[in-house]
Amino acid sequence: MRILAVGDVCGSIGCQYVRKILPTLKKENSIDMVIINGENSADGNGITQSSADYLFSLGADVVTGGNHSLRRQEVYDYLDNNEFCLRPHNLNDCQIGKGYCVVDFGKTRVAVINLSGKIYLERVGATCPFKAADELIEKAKADGINIIVVDFHAEATSEKRALGLYLDGKISALFGTHTHVQTADLQILEDGTGYITDIGMTGPIDSVLGVKKEIIINRLKNNDTSKFELANGDCMLNGCIFEVDEATGKTVNAQRIYI
């Protein structure tokens, strides 16, 4: 099974670029499943039913989230009712939505886990991602599922790396999101888990993590707190393809995507 993970989609401009690139990307790479991080897919930050539905219409099988998943209250009912639109499972005492789903492809079922890191994300209020991962992997295994993919939405590279090594051999793949910068450490770990610290973002190239560069530079230089605005112009799509052996659940090949 060939699974494509697409990095944080930034606003409507990022969604439109997914629309432009994804069909050909899927066809040329014989993609069986698509996971898209959509926590920033709505203009003005966060995710809405409209932006999530748009990503599903483009071919996403699962839309994962992050620290902005609950920013907009109007999406709460949608998160409760759409089992394939996730928010991090380990948000402390959160009763909205879920962070785990199973996609049934007939002969193969794939479990997708969405987790949040804790380091430098104290405002999110996440519980231990290691314990949360153990809980959900046990659930998947009890359901007879051996292909398990984790989107770990975290700031610290050390936390991402540590969780990847901890879960090596227990899951098929772990990809990091949140920092919007694709890392060069894609690998298959010793016990067969595909791993990359961050798959990057999908959105404007001439920006700071998708936001107009002038706004971020002025904030960092002059402590200006002007509202963030998404940049315009040419876009990129970042992601990763994990080829997973359906019998063993292990990753046998992995490829970074930067278009």
Structure description:
- The chain is of the alpha/beta class and 259 residues long.
- It has a single domain, classed as Metallo-dependent phosphatases (Purple Acid Phosphatase, chain A, domain 2).
- It is 26% helix and 26% strand.
- It contains 6 helices and 13 strands.
- Strands 1, 2, 3, 4, 11, 12 and 13 form a 7-stranded mixed β-sheet that branches. Strands 5-6-7-8-10-9 form a 6-stranded mixed β-sheet, with helices on one face.
- The relative contact order is 0.17.
- The mean pLDDT is 96.
Following the backbone from N to C, one meets helices and strands in this order, namely: EEHEHEHEEHEHEEEEHEE
- The counted number of beta strands is 13
Tally the structural domains: 1
User: Could you describe the largest sheet, including whether it forms a barrel?
Assistant: 7 strands, mixed
Q: Low-confidence spans: pLDDT under 50, at least 5 residues? A: none
In terms of DSSP E residues, the strand content is 25-35%
CATH top-level class: Alpha Beta
Radius of gyration: 17 Å
Q: What is the SS-derived class?
A: alpha/beta
Average pLDDT for all residues: 96
Oligomer: single chain
If you consult CATH, what is the topology? Purple Acid Phosphatase, chain A, domain 2
Q: Helical stretch count? A: 6
Percent of residues in helices comes to 25-40%
Alpha carbon gap, first and last residue: 22 Å
